[in-house]
Amino acid sequence: MSDQQGWTPGAPAPARPAQHDGPLSQETPVRPDGEARPRPDATSSAPSFAAIELQSALVRTQDQSRFVAPDLDETGAKPPLPWRRLSWVFAVVVALGIVAGFTYVTWFRNVEKDAEVAVVVDSVDPAQVAAQTPQDIVRDYFAALADGDIAKALTMGPRGGTGSEALLTPKVYAVTAALTPISDVEILTTDPAATEVDVRYRLGDSRVDTAVRITRLDTGEYRLTRTTVPVQFQITGSDNLPLIINGATVDQGQTFEVVPGRYELSTGRTLLEYPESSAIEIQTLARPDLTRHPASPELTDLGRSALMSAARESLDRCLAQQSLAPTGCPFGIRSDKSVVPSSIHWTLLNDPWADTTPSLSADDQSIAVLTIGLRLQLSVDYADGTRSPGQEFSDTVQARANMLGETSSDVAIFWER
């Protein structure tokens, strides 16, 4: 079957015209590869090459399946920062902070002046400085103490430490002032700008010569460098023992702020007491940063006699028991032979109370201890009819008793060997 527009299979291909260096004619253009192509006839009905190319471009333009560049989404773009609004917010926050800080500093902050630093301000009114000299503040302090006005004395300077103020109450100081009244105060320093004032006074029966340190504030006023001194009472093994100082019951182991005067210790009990040597007398403010004062309780006369009587009675009861090992007693034996209980007889051969002195336990000073030596003899009949003529025993034992009771009948003895 022949192709009217082409060639027939098996037939030779049509011969190409010979190539020329130029166009075959004026109507035949030359292709870029040198092959001559017939120039299209304007009168021909076949489409021209340019028309075909133009039609192909139009088709490609209308082909919706080809790639189309997406439109940019303008709604996704980030809006610009509101710098003007942010500036206003920042300004308002800063203004509120300044107002809050000024309010706190002006009305709410509690500022304590450093009493150890003397600050002199040029703007201080000279008349105000002259109205209160170093001599005045020292004189006023001791005058307040002499009058028993502890509250007024404490306004004239800071405390000397950070201890308890349990001994700075009017009630406690009334006892202190009664024990050691302050009198005959003499100011010895005349320098109006002195930082230390020499003073002399009587504290009870004692004459005191001392120096008091002064601080000048930025207001031009003078104050004492300290109005109290810290004291600590060291009492070993007294955790169970009450501690009363000038009538005030306080906790053991504390540091206390005190003013010049005498401070006496008490247990508040009838059988135990702090001796007079346990009292402390603070004569001056010119003391170390902390004064440690040892104190030891002891038995009262009633406590000693109550302990001795209770120990005697307890030992007598032990001797009266017809038992080889009396219950709750500091002596006893064992026997391999059966005994007749009614034949058991204990005899005390010495006087254990002659050379003994009661004391308090080092571990717990509410416990009294009485150490005695015993020499005993035991007589007993055995069930087999034999009899022991008398065996002697010697031992050192302790009678102990809790002494926190109020009367002699509260003393109960327990024995230790």
TrEMBL record:
Please, which domain of life does this record's source organism belong to?
Bacteria
Composition bias of kind Basic and acidic residues appears in 30-40
Question: Does this UniProt record's set of keywords contain Transmembrane helix?
Answer: yes
UniProt name for this protein: DUF4878 domain-containing protein
Specify where the region named Disordered lies, as residue ranges: 1-46
* Keyword set, alphabetical order: Membrane, Transmembrane, Transmembrane helix
The regions listed as transmembrane in this protein's record are 88-107
